[in-house]
Structure formats: C-alpha cells, structure tokens
Write a structure and sequence with these properties.
This protein is mainly α. The protein has helices at about 5-15, 25-45, 50-75, 75-85. It is globular.
Length: about 90
C-alpha cells in the first residue's frame, strides 16, 4: 500500500529540514506514520490479512528506531515531531 505521490510530497514539504531534504529522520518518521495509519485502516476491514500485519509491525519497528535516534541526537527535533504527529512519547 504505497502512498500517492501528492500525499508524499505534502508530507515531505511539511517536515523537511531544508529545501532539498527528502530523507532526514523527521521526514522518514512522518512518511512511516502516514503509511502505518493507512495499513491500520486496512487491517480493521481485513482482519485475516497476515502479510499486511507483518508489514505493519516492520514499519512500526522502523519508526521506533528512527524516533530513538532522534531522541538521542536531536531532542528538540524529536519533541517538535512528536507534537506535530500526535504520537505518544
């Protein structure tokens, strides 16, 4: 379940740190959060889709690792991102 190009572009422009930024941890976490939301909606409808569930768990783990990195190295960016995306600490 890939994100649409326009949705991806909006997320990148909102969370980027500089003009040509597409891969900073902040952008990656924002993209993963959107992807996680979409897969979660899918799984509410299709409860037995175990391959989607496995992908969801992998995305959640990846996002958690990126958030840990941000928390350790850029605490101010971490706090700003958590507030912007309404994530738990």
């Amino acid at each position: 379940m890939a994100l649409k190009r326009s949705t991806k572009k909006k997320i990148i422009t909102k969370h980027r740190t500089h003009e040509k930024d597409t891969g900073s941890p902040e952008v990656q976490v924002a993209l993963l959060t959107k992807k996680i939301d979409e897969v979660t909606k899918h799984l509410k409808e299709h409860k037995k889709d175990n391959s989607a569930r496995r992908g969801l768990l992998a995305n959640v783990a990846h996002r958690r690792k990126l958030l840990t990195y941000l928390k350790m190295n850029k605490p101010d960016a971490y706090q700003k991102l958590i507030d912007a995306l309404d994530l738990k600490k």
